[in-house]
Amino acid sequence: MNEIFLPFAFFRGKIIPAELAKVSIMTNALQYGTGVFGGIRGYQANNKKTFHLFRLSDHYQRFLSSLKILNAKIPYNREKLVGLTLELAARNNSKTDFYIRPLAYASNYELSPDLSLLTFDFAIYMIPLGEYLPIHKGLKIAVSSWMRINDNMIPSRAKITGGYINSALAKGDAARMGFDDALLLTSDGHIAEGSAANFFIVRDGVLITSPRNADVLEGITRRTILQLAQDLGIPTQERMIDRTECYIADEAFLSGTGAQLAWIAEIDGRIIGNGKIGEISARLQKLFFSIVRGNERKYTSWLTKV
Ligand code: PMP
After folding, report:
1. Same domain for 54 and 103?
2. Residues 192 and 51 occupy one common structural domain
3. Is residue 275 over pLDDT 80?
4. Cα–Cα distances in Å, from 246 out to 21, 99, 115, 192, 269?
5. Which of 159, 180, 251, 300 suits 141 as a labelling partner, its CA being 20 to 30 A distant?
6. Structural domain count of the chain
7. What is the pLDDT, as a whole number, of residue 48?
8. How many angstroms separate the CA atoms of 306 and 302, rounded?
9. Which residues line ligand 1 (CB under 6 A)?
């Protein structure tokens, strides 16, 4: 993975060199995971001259919802967040595809994790980013022995920094065992999602994904894929998925800002379909990449130019 930052970050109300955007070890968020974050991709347009931020405003809507769940506030509304992000992206002037990481974090040195005492700072940094998961070869996935956090433990629909210890355990163990990613089950044994991506299967021509109340993060890409499938006339269902259904599915894939649309060849050693990318996955993947590069007029409202 890439560890090079783009040169500028937004920090304490200003754009400054990214290497100077630093916090104290006493920061509450560092102790307790009291932060929320986002992840937005910037894609080079096919004309090579501009970049497109994908569903920027939708990402900030979820970001603000995550803060609301924590009953935390920052002094920016959605329009302002969009504006700050565009300003930073223009300043960084990336030459390659990139990723934007907005972060709101409890910045005071309060010893207690008491949310009623905390104040939140807002920061953004950017990194160059190509593939996060391979998209041309099929993924090898394992169902994790770690269960997905549930809404009454750490709200799963909020992108809370502390919640990612759940992803870290599942992903780390899967990687150590030679898998590309893990699938996490809900506490009642249904498929929730991947470590940092939503999960889809195809059975008998129907595209199926876990519902929003299956302890999933409500992915922007998930919503995008469901919409594209509907536009292509592919029937969709949002419903609970049994573990064994994914073994016998015709197709399976992960979706996310990082993952994009990454198809799955194998789950727990069972080959999915014929082990090659399925027809519906391939159609959706092709359309998705065409959209983000700016080739599909119908979907340009999802793109913000930098
Ligand atoms: N689930 C989790 C746990 C994630 O971290 C992500 C990545 N943000 C997703 C799903 C996919 O969400 P999105 O499509 O909005 O990136």
Report:
1. yes
2. no
3. yes
4. 43, 30, 39, 12, 12
5. 159
6. 2
7. 86
8. 13
9. 39, 167, 193, 196-198, 217, 219-222, 255-257
